[in-house]
Give the backbone structure.
Amino acid sequence: MIGKLRLKFIVLSMTSLFALLMVIIVGMNLLNYNTVISDADEVLSLLSQNKGAFPDFEDNPRERLPRDMSPEIPYESRFFSVLLNEDGSVVQLETSRIAAIDAEMAIEYGQSVLASGAQHGFLEDFRYVVSYEEENVRITFLDCGRKLNSFWRFLLISVGMALTGFVVVFFVIFFFAGRIIRPIAESYEKQKRFITDAGHEIKTPLTIINANVDVLEMDLGENECLADIQQQTKRLTKLTNELVMLARMEEAGDTMPKIDFPVSEVVADAALPFRTLAMQQDKEFTCNIQPMLSMNGNGKAVEQLVTLLMDNALKYSPAGGKVALDFVKQSKSLHLTVFNTTATEVSCENLNHVFERFYRTDLSRNSQTGGHGIGLSVAKAIVTAHGGKIQATTKDGHSFQILVVLPL
């Protein structure tokens, strides 16, 4: 249990850190990429408005350029443009402001963009925009290679730094996780030890009380007060045994000894005595157990699981009600289903708490059923120790069904 808690803490911490780093990295690089595109589109817009060239700004460049554009942009930018007619023939070329592109390459790029039908986008490292001049189409290209290279370098560096930080934090959390959850682990261990020790300490006084009551009954004869004492000591003894059993099951966890055993026979043997009890209580009992099934686990614990679920089903089903047990193999797991009708309505709120200690669906906590609200908690501990899942459902609000899924 403590190992699983430590693992969950590490997984939750690292998942949160990973999500945070992803948000930061994706956000920063998206903003960086959008900046590259917006700057390129601003320059291309200016070029397309002036037929593939910067306006004449020798006298006062500040007045001819947008406010947020540096006067150095016209000197730093590398661009070319192609003017094509409707059939793709070249009308005009402008490649004087770029050395990496010759006339043949410029025509090829322009015709490729014209054939695609796109109005703007990227072609390799060139950002382009399409504008119309009378019956011709001008395609202006801007070299964004250096900015794109800077973007990719920033992306790789940010990812590398994030991964490095993630690994460092992982080792830090992995090292300190034990110390962080140590108070919880110690409190949990003390709680289990207290239950076990208190259970053993209570058993002796209860045994003495029962013995003394028997002696008094021999001297005084049958007495209502003595009968009440015997009844209550039996209830307290049963509660103590259940609490000790629950503590032991939770403490065993993955260390529970497990072997391959014929689980169909174990389930059948555990369910058989309840057939007679159901007949005595005027309840309909049906049992469907798939034969020849085996699993790796603890046979005694599985037998106890079936006994607890069947006892709970009979205990809370009314006279004339129905109780059913089904045990079948589905895919790579075993499904144990215990069903019973109920005298009172079962709400979804109750289903969320039935596996909690001391929880009982009857708010009056009527002791006539003989339960303490521990049985289903023990059942859940057994299922958890086998790596399975347990779930409580209701079909119509007047029935109660528990589904146990156990791995083979």
Q: What stands out?
A: Residues 145-220 form the longest helix (76 residues).
